[in-house]
Design brief:
Blueprint: H1 4-17, H2 27-109
Helix pairs in contact: 1-2
């Protein structure tokens, strides 16, 4: 009953606003116009609801994608920092390994 009542109100409202033929009141024509308007209104309503659902889903998905993108960027930066630290440690280790040789060279030059 709750669903039928708004439809009846809509049909009556649309029937009042439907253009009546000038010479003869054609009930079939009026019903066709009302049905066409109801179907058109229903299609618009379905489109609007679908658009709202798509917007809602995109808002949720896009925010999640932004978070995933930020996480990927942070992970890439952390990998680059780790590689730089490893390279720095390798250079330091090679310098420590070269220290005895450098001392000999410095002593030989002096």
């Amino acid at each position: 009953m709750l669903v039928v009542l708004p439809l009846v109100v809509l049909v009556v409202w649309l029937a009042r606003s439907a253009p009546a033929p000038v010479l003869v009141v054609d009930l079939v024509h009026t019903v066709r116009v009302v049905v066409c308007r109801v179907m058109h209104t229903r299609a618009l309503l379905v489109r609007r609801v679908l658009l709202l659902v798509v917007r809602w889903v995109l808002a949720r998905v896009l925010s999640a994608l932004v978070l995933v993108w930020a996480l990927v960027v942070v992970l890439q930066v952390s990998v680059l920092v780790r590689q730089a630290l490893q390279a720095s440690c390798r250079v330091r280790q090679r310098l420590v390994d070269l220290l005895p040789v450098l001392r000999l060279v410095v002593v030989a030059v002096v």
